[in-house]
Design goal:
heterodimer, A: 398 residues, alpha+beta, Butyryl-CoA Dehydrogenase, subunit A, domain 2, Butyryl-CoA Dehydrogenase, subunit A, domain 3, 3 domains, 4-stranded mixed sheet, 4-stranded antiparallel sheet, 12 helices, 10 strands, B: 380 residues, Butyryl-Coa Dehydrogenase, subunit A, domain 1, 11 helices, 50% helix, oxidoreductase activity, acting on the CH-CH group of donors (chain A), oxidoreductase (chain A), AcylCoA_DH/oxidase_NM_dom_sf (chain A)
């Protein structure tokens, strides 16, 4: 039983901190910590800095330009980057499609796409969900029919995060309708500029344009854009989902959100004293901090088991449920902490710092919207109910 | 980073597991519980003979030098067997208080017997009005020459009915909830003026209330400096909470196993009830609670024998808060998943369910520890 970092791991942590101290732009960190909107330019500026450091592709083998970090080092990076207010990597290229290409793609695909992901030249989005295929993803209907050396794609994808910025999309498409749903799915890489693709925004309840619908009408996709074998897409998708689930618990993000909450509650006043000293509110904070403490140890136990050669299994599902519930609880408290100032909805205040026009705490503007936005946490990446199905099947054998 | 037990710790846990398997069938446990002693004398002796009671004591006193992890290894297996021997009270808490607060002579006098099981200790730290606050002491100890005369009441002293020695807190100065002015005394269970009102507990053990009516003890019964026992009490309760977390994990493990087995066996509407998603998700929630509890037990063990600090206080309070809630959750949801059979005396699950809820009532419940944690909250 040993919960401490080794000397090498501590040295790595110092290296990470020194890098972030020197290179993380203060304006970006302030936006991240205050839950304010990041522009496409913000993301690209930071990605360039990370790429120059060689720390962008933390899930890739070194031969493709990745970093060969141990699970503990990845964990340290996650903890520190959340603490410092590093923007979350847009995962679709670097953490999602790239591992699939590396594992199942052709040599040509590796050479064509991986360098462009590293350099930020390509912005990828994900074409999985459809109006009729959410949790039941395998029921997807977007059809790809082989005609000569092309596939002709017809159908609709939805919930496509940041698809408005993307020039590439990886899609699950149906290539065989005669067999069991899972066995007729293929994994296609599609250029968003191909004729026949239309992207339409979906505005979420917080007024945000984060997700989109993507329509495909007789879209011609070169056959060499098929990853691996035809009709094996479901296998690749499942491989990718295990990547997605790791880290969805967002323990580091919850820690950062809790720090933000406590600072906010120290500034807010109730009955003439800081809100954080209010009996009811301090106990609410205490409860979520305690639950986060437990989840953080559960997370470390998974990290240590992977470090020891294990594979993160359904424990990640349990932690995804727990972690997202905790983060939502923190978002809930941040919203409560600003009292009636949760009510005003002043979108221009969410992009930049408060300029003195309103009477609220300077950090108040985005908090209610952020709370609503993060209701997504328990829905995406496999809804929390789906995670419990996975636990029932994989751990409990029910 | 490595969360596994080392070889020695694993051997220790296996030893306890074997002993429990041999001695603690469900039927035997009911016999032990209904006996006059209220637990198994032979099991108690074997715990001593195998060196398991010496685990937390320093090597120079014939102990094993074990810390939080080793104590939890023992307690988890005692929990799995739903053992009712007062190990926690005698070895961890009683032995711990004497180790920390006692002088050399006192340690020599008592610890060897505790570490072999020849001496059984019970600890009276709470009173009818104290509601888990160990500083809320109204029992008094007045100086009479070089002696002390104790008067007052001690509440729910588990194992007190059969103890040879009682360690009790009493106020030598100050007023009701002051931290200063609390002293610890070691009292012979047969002392004049000491009345024990014994009773069975709802989770199968035995305990008593203590009435102290002009109980006279010598100065050599005082543990540590007069009026300065609060720190030792807080520290040793912290160690005991860590140990209790270990027990709770063991009880929860078996409660979850039993429930899962039942979901696979019990058929309704022509299928095992575990095919129903509403029951699958509840079971997944129970497992998730168990994982959280395991994590906090590990964390508590890691600070149990560290020097006192606000960080240690926070971890201990957090651990007891999480463990108490997980335990009650698994108890209630487990009974519900079993249906009527989970309510019956004849079925072992019901006894696990009772123990799980009563763990919340020992050493401070989840509300008590949430308040403690909130009081130590850092603004960042």
């Amino acid at each position: 039983m040993n919960m401490n970092y080794t000397a090498e791991e501590l040295a790595f942590r110092d290296e990470v901190r020194a890098f972030l101290d020197a290179k993380l732009p203060a304006d970006i960190a302030a936006k991240v910590k205050g839950f304010r909107k990041l522009s496409k330019e913000d993301h690209q500026r930071w990605q360039k800095i990370l790429s120059e450091q060689g720390w962008y592709a933390t899930h890739w083998p070194e031969q493709y330009g990745g970093v060969s970090w141990t699970p503990v080092q990845k964990h340290i990076w996650d903890e520190e980057s959340c603490r410092y207010g590093v923007p979350r990597s847009i995962p679709f290229g670097v953490n999602m499609v790239a591992p699939v290409i590396i594992k199942f793609g052709s040599e040509e695909q590796k050479q064509q796409y991986l360098p462009r992901i590293l350099s930020g030249e390509d912005w990828w989005c994900q074409g999985y969900s459809e109006p009729g295929a959410g949790s039941d993803l395998a029921s997807l209907k977007t059809r790809a029919v082989r005609e000569g050396d092309h596939y002709i794609v017809n159908g609709q994808k939805t919930w496509t995060t940041l698809g408005q910025h993307a020039n590439m999309i990886f899609c699950l498409v149906r290539t065989n309708t005669e067999v069991k749903a899972q066995e007729g799915i293929s994994f296609l890489l599609i250029d968003m500029n191909t004729p026949g693709i239309t992207v339409r925004p979906i505005i979420t309840l917080d007024g945000e344009h984060e997700v989109n619908e993507v329509f495909f009408e007789d879209v011609k996709v070169p056959a060499e854009n098929l990853v691996g074998e035809e009709n094996k897409g479901w296998t690749y998708a499942k491989y990718l989902l295990t990547y997605e689930r790791t880290g969805l618990a967002g323990i580091g993000l919850s820690k950062a959100a809790l720090t933000h909450l406590k600072q906010l509650a120290s500034r807010q006043v109730k009955n003439g004293k800081p809100l954080i000293q209010d009996q009811t509110f301090s106990q609410r904070i205490a409860q979520v901090e305690i639950d986060l403490m437990a989840a953080a140890i559960s997370n470390l136990r998974i990290v240590a088991s992977v470090e020891g050669g294990g594979v993160p299994g359904a424990e990640s599902s349990m932690l995804k449920v727990r972690g997202t519930e905790i983060r939502q609880a923190i978002n809930d408290l941040a919203r409560r902490a600003i009292g009636p100032y949760a009510i005003p909805f002043v979108e221009e205040e969410m992009d930049q710092a408060y300029d003195g026009e309103f009477l609220s705490d300077p950090g108040a503007a985005p908090l209610a919207a952020h709370y609503f936005n993060n209701r997504k946490l328990s829905i995406f990446g496999g809804s929390n109910e789906i995670q419990k199905n996975i636990v029932s099947k994989m751990i409990l054998g029910l | 980073m490595d969360f596994r037990l080392n070889e020695e710790q694993q051997m220790l846990q296996d030893t306890v597991a074997r002993l429990v398997r041999g001695e603690y069938s469900f039927e035997k446990r009911l016999e032990y519980s209904e006996s006059e002693l209220g637990f198994s004398e032979s099991f108690w002796k074997q715990l001593g003979e195998l060196g398991l009671m010496a685990v937390p004591f320093p090597e120079e006193l014939g102990g094993f030098g074990g810390t939080g992890v080793e104590v939890q290894s023992v307690m988890t297996e005692l929990g799995r067997g739903l053992c009712i021997e007062p190990y926690l009270q005698s070895v961890v808490l009683g032995g711990g208080l004497i180790s920390q607060a006692g002088n050399e002579q006192q340690k020599e006098q008592w610890l060897a017997g505790i570490a072999t099981g020849e001496t059984q200790v019970a600890v009276g730290l709470q009173e009818p009005q104290s509601f888990y606050n160990t500083n809320d002491v109204e029992t008094t100890a007045e100086k009479a020459g070089s002696d002390y005369v104790l008067n007052g009441r001690k509440a729910v002293v588990i194992g007190g009915h059969s103890a040879d020695l009682l360690v009790v807190s009493a106020r030598t100065s100050g007023s009701s909830r002051d931290a200063s002015g609390i002293s610890l005394f070691v009292i012979d269970a047969n002392a004049d003026g000491l009345e024990r009102r014994s009773y069975p507990t709802i989770d199968g053990a035995k305990g008593c209330d203590l009435l102290l009516n002009n109980v006279k003890v010598g100065a050599d019964a005082l543990l540590g400096s007069e009026g300065e026992a609060a720190d030792a009490i807080e520290y040793q309760v912290g160690r005991a909470i860590s140990a209790l977390c270990g027990e709770a994990v063991g009880v929860m493990e078996v409660a979850c196993d039993l429930t899962l087995d039942y979901l696979k066996q019990r058929k309704q509407f022509g299928v095992p009830i575990g095919k129903f998603q509403v029951l699958q998700h509840r079971m997944a929630d129970m497992m998730s609670e168990l994982e959280q509890a395991r994590s906090m037990a590990i964390l508590a063990a890691s600070v149990a024998d560290e020097p006192q600090s606000d960080e240690r206080r926070r971890v201990i309070a957090a651990a007891k808060n999480v463990i108490s809630r997980s335990a009650q959750f698994i108890s209630e949801k487990g009974v519900q998943s079993h249906g009527g059979i989970g309510m019956t005396w004849e079925y072992n699950f019901a006894h696990y369910a009772k123990r799980l809820v009563m763990i919340n009532h020992q050493l401070g419940d989840d509300d008590f520890h949430l308040e403690r944690y909130a009081a130590l909250l850092e603004a960042n």
